[in-house]
Amino acid sequence: SRFISWKRFEIAAYETRKELFDQFVLDYQSNPNRDVYVLLGSSRTAGMDRNDVESKLNNSLFYNFSAPYVGVGYEHYWLEKILDSGIRPKSLFIELDPLLMTDSSFFYSI
Q1: Which letter does DSSP use for residue 106 in this model?
Q2: Contact 39/93 with Cβ under 8 angstroms?
Q3: Rounded to an integer, what distance in angstroms lies between the CA atom of residue 91 and that of residue 93?
Q4: Complete DSSP assignment for 4-61
Q5: Per-chain mean pLDDT for the chain
Q6: Rounded to whole angstroms, what are the CA distances from 34 to 17, 21, 71, 104?
Q7: Using one digit for the tens of pLDDT, what is the confidence trace for 18-50?
Q8: pLDDT, tens digit, 9 for 90 and up, residues 58-69
């Protein structure tokens, strides 16, 4: 079947962020003098393109860890992973949606 249910799509989106993180760490290690910018958010911010941002911010690395229907638990998970890797972003952009700030948003399915 070519149909992917929302729940299955969500898991697939999360899986791509694991691969993105591995690439992020490699890029950072190869370019330690570049300023790092990170975006954490939902599908609303997922469209922000890395190339567009890096073209406007000289000598930068930009990574967008946004994924569909995520809450603060997801954002906390990635922030913790980034900081534990030793990377200290110059700027961190976090989308906060009041609709997603419920008790269940503190749990993440990664």
Answers
A1: G
A2: yes
A3: 7
A4: --HHHHHHHHHHHHHHHHHHHHHHHHH-TTSEEEEEE--TTTTT--HHHHHHHSTTEE
A5: 84
A6: 21, 17, 29, 36
A7: 999 999 999 999 999 999 999 998 888 888 888
A8: 899 999 999 887
